[in-house]
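Figure S7 source data.
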Amino acid sequence: MSTLQETDAVRIAREELDRSVIEARRLPGERDDNFVLLEPGGAKCVLKIAPRDDDPAELELQHAALEHLAEHAPHLAVPKCLAGPVTLQDPLAKGRRARLTGWLEGRPLGMVQPHGKALLASLGRMLGELDVALEGFAHPAQNRVLKWDLACGLAVIAERVGDVEAARREGVENWLTHSRDRLVPFFERARRGVVHNDANDYNVLVGRDGERVSGLIDFGDLLETARISELAIALAYAMLGKPEPLLAGREVVRGYHSASPVEEDEADHLIDLVRLRLLVSVCNSARERRRHPDNEYLAISEAPAWALLDRLRDVPDAWSTAVFREACGYEPIARSSRIREWLRSTAPASVVGEDLPAQPSVWIDLSVGSADLAALSDDRDLEAWSEMIRRRLQETGARIAFGRYDEPRLAYATDAFRQPGFEIDELRTVHIGIDVFVPAGTDVCSPLSGKVHSFQVNEAPRDYGPTILLEHTTDGGDPFWTLYGHLSASSLEGLSVGQVIEAGQRIAHIGDASENGGWPPHLHFQVMTDLLGKSGDFPGVGTASTRDVWRSVCPDPSALLGIGDPLEKASDVAGLEQRRGSVLGPSLSLSYREPLHIVKGRGAWLFDVTGQPFLDTVNNVCHVGHCHRRVVAAGQRQMAVLNTNTRYLHETILRYGEKLLAKLPDPLEVVFFVCSGSEANELALRLAEAKTGARDVIVLEGGYHGNTGRLVELSHYKYSGAGGRGAGEGVHALPMPDPYRGRIREGDPEIAAKYAAFAGEVIDELLALGRRPSAFLGESILSCGGQIDPPEGYLEAVYRTVRGAGGVCIADEVQTGFGRVGTHFWAFERQRVVPDIVTMGKPIGNGHPLAAVATTREIAAAFASGMEYFNTYGGNPVSCAIGEAVLDVIDEEGLQRHALEVGRELEAGLRALQGRFEQIGDVRGAGLFLGFELVEDPSERTPNAALATRIANRMRELGILASTDGPEHDVIKIKPPLVFSREHAMTYCEVLEKILTEQ
Ligand code: PMP
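Tokens for the predicted 4'-deoxy-4'-aminopyridoxal-5'-phosphate complex:
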């Protein structure tokens, strides 16, 4: 073992390599002594001193490879050779060989969390590029013998398996016996190449953004071997410790294949090779551990490899291979395309004893976004499903209903449909068979000749009656299987494994709800091109992330049945994005780098097209919960009766107007109904002008009030932002009353008065010009400004000043109204003021385009100049029915109080996290209108927009929709539908904690 110290490294570098080094720091290394050297001006390089017994040829090999790469692939982030190798004279290192290489910036992959898709793909791509670049490289020493050469792996394991603890030894020996026959010939025929051979997570460096590999170091294991070893070794490490190892591995494979195409034979052996590397690793550790029984670290470092091996034992190899094949663009199940072709060319046959194509039939939409399901009183209630199917059959006069193949359904999004051996974190939602809804008792027939492969009665929680699997063979000799589910329990009598079945033979009959887990009576029919090591427990639903693989494992059976699915297929995200780009104006933005395709809302949840749920913490529009039944029903009912304008007498607008005004303090006694927050603010400005005869408007910096020409010119958030053209004529913006990062900060006892004094200054300037303010327009908690809660007394002082100069005060409650702030119904009430005009939008219609302006009788009268105020849609009966339902729900469900209670808990949770993570500079807001500001440096309060963006994106990956706000984009706002629960608040804090813990 070396005893070289950092001071020795400095001396050696100075004296023998002629570097003017200031300081050296030791770096980890398995054999070499490695030091990072700091040079004047901040430059860094790496000093590597080989052990005394090192083979000089191996060092020459590494050196030559790096030189080759520098010349042929200069873009690759691998160390550059700066000096050496030289043989050292230093008394402490005499005879050892030293060299200097360039320093690569980055953190080791093993210290970076999380490993996102982009990062994993970048790792694969870099290795692929490296292997391509090494194709033209040759060196006499490249055919070296190394225990880390995968081609020697079987021998290494065989030699060391005796050191593995007894409980695990047999498993390893069994694997060895079974894998030899596959792997030995593979290594004999495998494509060879010179490879790095050790892309472990401490040899891979990651760039600052955490999304890209910034370097690959340590070429000490470089050699010529089976070329695919490069990828297999990287995979073994990339899959360690991952909740979904295969999905993580798949990204690496995709990246590698994009740069260096993986051959089909290589793809077919990848999972074996990953296991081989893991076993070499644990067998080596076992040997070391036997030699050094006191070294606890050895056992600890082995644990993740064993954990992954255990995890992979549950995953059928055929499945892993299918996933990796798909990542390389190969048909996931090689014979699937031949089987599909054969099925297409075979005469269609029935599965229910009837000529299916000849029967009047209807296809039922059971997808995530199905309107038929949403119309049910409970779209998860299977009885309601049965009722809906019965109704559809009746309405259409059909005898048979079909449920679709490759359809994501929310019905399966429960733990019952999770299956060990596949992805476990992701909900399985995609139906991979076809449903044939027919009465219970209907005969089930095999459409093809074959034999009984297996049958089983399914136990709870998937107790949906017996399943039968038949085995068939195509004319070309490819085996495949058909599955029949939801059968009657008595079906299995007389059936035996291996029993020959003729085409058209009756094999079972359909079960009723009492014996098929409560489902509407139907046959679940599925075709399998591989059994993935399963039998009767074969899944009938797959995960969306592996949908392409499932399509190959379980192809569409409709051709075999002679039926065709006429319903429109949901487009993929890329297709929608492209169409959107051509149909809609480019000024519309999409959230997230990978846009979401949301098709359903329920309560505080949104669901994407594949049924993945997202907790919505951004949408304060769907105030009482997405698609609240009462609100939906109110709109639907009124829409079926009458929808017209306000020029006729109608009860609803009056009842609703009275209810809404009852929520407002005196003297706000008159209401105008409009269709958007922008229209409301436009009208408010006209009202103010009518009352005051003046046009100058005072607003707040960071404010947003709407999308019309005038409102953009007075919304500081817009006119001073990207594409903005400055404040409009007569617009005066006051500094944001931000106690955390504003001009005057918390702790100043005069803070409210000092901020309010800016209004006085504007007014003095106006008066000096012979003008007066028409209005002050501001939010009572600033939303786009970054959830800023002005200091107590601020609005009171501003209102007093503005009114003193003859202006009126408009409270924009578009974001904050309707009980969201918890203590009060309106946010202005927290500041103990009564505005002259209140504008409302967003939550007022729970997503329906409804908005309103409330004002005093006096101002309304001043506006009645003889010119009619007509708004075609404003106040129509449908909007009013919806608005009234929203008010009723807020009251009856106690949502204001709920916002207060849950908001307090959420705020407390956030404050607790603030205590632990100094990046959270400030937590603020009221009720369920909260925000937290992220800072680089808590004492300087410097904004940290990058972290805010990272949190928002990462939350989306973890199933929470969040977004950033504030002029510096460093605030995460929280304004969920008010049905957001305590559990949701806890989940939010847990996820945030997880993200802040990641580096
Ligand atoms: N005022 C505020 C405070 C808002 O946040 C918005 C919308 N974001 C508006 C007015 C404009 O509302 P709308 O988009 O309905 O026109």
